[in-house]
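For consistency, the fold was encoded as tokens, which produced the following:
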Amino acid sequence: MVRDIDEDGDGDGEREIPPTMLSPSPSPSSSPSPSTQSFTPLKRRRRNSLIALAVFAALGAALWFGRTRAAPDLRDPIRQIFPQAATFVEQSGVFRVYDDEERLVGWAAAGSASGYGGPMLVLAGIDTLGEVAGVEVVEQRETPIFWRMARAADYFKAIAGARFDAVDYDYPDVVRVTGATISSDAVVASVRASVAEVAGEAFDVRLPLPPQPFEFGILEITILILFVTGIAVHRAGGRARRAIRWACQFAGLLVLGFWKDSPITLAKITKLLSGYFPDVRTGLALYLLIGGFIVTTFLYGRNIYCHYACPFGAAQRCVGVIGGRGFKLPAWSVRLMQRMRNVIVFVAVFIALLTLQPALASYEPFAVLFSLRGTTLQWLLLFVVLVVSLTIRNPWCNFFCPMRSAELLLKEVRRAFRKGARVTSG
């Protein structure tokens, strides 16, 4: 059975199946078989619990395998920076580089910083004059779009030639890649960390780390207001619910969408699942968004983020008002597409954890809409979703959004906890 979830009584609720995940759906023309009739709610709940356990086990295995990979070999990146390199002597993480005549040509060290998709490992070489001879990215988990834009901007060439004690976020030749501030700053922070290693070992200079300000501004305040308002409206109800939800979604569209481009994405969730936790001083908005989604879904059984804060959901709703959204798909097709979505999300997260590349999991067209950058496939997906939104209610939310799959898993966990609590108290 497919049911409509309409929280504010305006006919704009999302069509959602019960959390059956991957179970086979009956044909639209077939009559219920005896086996189907005997498929009781209790058996369905047990099956859902087993599927949830299998999903967690498979993702855990993928993460374990991804983390058992060997450490990267730094010799080839060093040769890229110092073509004359013949031998290396490593001490305390710093490589002394010699040519074939055993003359010292420079030093090299690797530094790490947290980027959009996780830790970024960058190798920097310093020549005997104390200048940056070159920069090589050893490991990165950023989006392909960032690297394409970085190469076009000659991002790394701007750092080469700088004095080892001059590399900083405010270095005049370093220009942040538009729309990718987190990734851009991660490159500079990684280079800064590697240069600091060399400076201490080779020049006996201790480079202080730049102060990390605590970021709490309009984005974080807006997130808190949207979640608090959503919880209050959900619990209180009333005739004003529809207007308040419209106001919240419009605020989310402007602030979380077009201004800050900070919606929850599958890459951000996978980043945390991979164990890559950004500094709370610079990543508070991410913790508020995902934490708010988990807490409200687990405690109240309602996905406050999707209904009150999601900027892409608000964009769909605005487009839908223009088109009327009068067409409804058959229940069997809705059920089929939602199960396909669950499979797609599982495969995307599995591959991302297996390779420790969270950015691989993100297929959403959010960046295309809010910052006008994305792959050809994402541009095409955005066009299709917006066109379909004219006639079908919230197609992305219902048939593609990974947050729906995450919600189903959280509700399974919630149900298991509540059942355990009843058994314990009984």
The radius of gyration is 25 Å.
